[in-house]
Amino acid sequence: MSDTHLIPVQRLQVAVQQVVRGFGSSEAEVQAVADNLIGANLSGHDSHGIGMLPRYAEAFLQGGLRVNAHVSTLLDAGAMLRLDGNAGFGQVIGAEAMALGIARARAQGSCIIALGNSHHLGRIGAWAELAAAAGLVSMHFVNVIARAVVAPHGGADARFGTNPFCAGVPLTGRDPVILDFATSMIAQGKTRVAYNKGELVAPGCLIDDQGRPTQEPRYSVVPPIGALLTFGAHKGFGMAMMCELLGGALAAGMTQRDDDGSQRRVLNGMFSVLVDPAMLADRAAFEVEALGFIDWVKASPPREGFGPVQLAGEPERAWRAQRMAEGVPVDATTWQEILAAAGQLGVDPVQVQAAAGLGV
Ligand SMILES: NC(=O)c1ccc[n+]([C@@H]2O[C@H](COP(=O)([O-])OP(=O)(O)OC[C@H]3O[C@@H](n4cnc5c(N)ncnc54)[C@H](O)[C@@H]3O)[C@@H](O)[C@H]2O)c1
Question: Ligand 1 pocket: which of 36, 48, 175 to mutate (most atoms <8 Å of CB)?
């Protein structure tokens, strides 16, 4: 297993901003990308944090990721917006798309956002959190355009991406419920993290290039490539299909097929529905029922081997509190890859290393 650096958040921010400046991004974009990626690490999702930077650098150097790009509105039909992300940083495109949709949903009660051609949108929960902070319920179906990494239920090879689904519900006087997961057993980035750490993945997550079960994360990282399995057998597979049909075919006009992985860019399509519960629902009933049900569910006594019942969004908040206080763990392999990416982008890795407070 490789060593892990524990980097204080402020130091990590300075170091990661230095790397992102190498793309030639505006200061606003540098801030948005660094904050979003570090936000994923803080939330406990290292798979969607700063470890994505080497992939972004490869995509950029191939011309598949466009810096300083913004959303274009292709259709403005009141409560329906069709947006093009122009292959820009998803951290910027996602925020811009959500800002447009949130303004519409607050004015009209709901909004459907069809977003296509965004570069990697990162942790989708970040977008549901934005909606929830504005008092809005949201749902997000997302497809992935990159080399296929997930097998259909019963299939022996990869045919689509880790197609995440996310939903957020704001609660009066409490933290929102934010459900946010890949439809594969584990996110693909988690196999990269496991591979970099020299660890195995849990049983039932992966098949090798012959379609046989394996725990070796290499089958998801380096050739010969196998495939991740969907969670919940045919149920996760069904959700993955919906993400492709709604986020891909309907929202983006682009689905996953025949990608040989030579293109390093990762595009996402996202179909989002935003609803203002204050306009749609009987507000008092919604608040009483939502909070009452949550209290009822959380009162279930813990089963042997489990802690207290948690709601979606709680683990991420706990990670955030811990990592804000203690620093962000970054395994040495991932850190070396980030330094190498900095070098490719014309940023001095020695300075990045120093900014992170790590010896040279
Ligand atoms: N942009 C992309 O292309 C893309 C693709 C795939 C995944 N992702 C992102 O990857 C991230 C990780 O996905 P994942 O599938 O590894 O997540 P995961 O398996 O860790 O599941 C996370 C969800 O489960 C909830 N949860 C976790 N433990 C819980 C518990 N004990 N009780 C109740 N709820 C619990 C969390 O609050 C969260 O909502 C997500 O943020 C997702 O959006 C992005």
Answer: 48
> Residue 247: CB partners within 8 Å, gap ≥ 6?
140, 141, 142, 143, 163, 268, 269, 270, 271
Calculate how far, in angstroms, residue 180's C-alpha sits from the geometric centre of ligand 1. Answer: 5
pLDDT for 261 equals 82
Strands 72-76 and 80-84: antiparallel
Residues 158 and 257 in one domain: yes
Question: Is the pLDDT confidence value at 359 over 80?
Answer: no
Total residue count of the chain as it appears in this document: 360
Angle between helices 9-21 and 27-42 (to 10 degrees): 140
- Residue nearest to ligand 1 atom 28, measured at CA: 315
Is 100 in the same domain as 175? yes
Closest CA to 25 of 54, 81, 78, 66: 66
| Nearest CA, atom 39, ligand 1 | 179
For the ranges 95-99, 223-227, 272-276, 340-344, the lowest mean pLDDT is seen at 223-227
Give the Å distance between the CA of 323 and the centre of ligand 1: 17
- Mean pLDDT across the chain, nearest whole number? 96
Q: What is the CATH number of the domain that holds 221?
A: 3.30.60.50
pLDDT of residue 259: 80
Report the number of distinct structural domains present in the chain: 3
Pocket, ligand 1, Cβ cutoff 6 A: 45, 47-48, 120-125, 142, 144, 162, 164, 166, 178-182, 186-187, 190, 268, 310, 312-313, 315-316
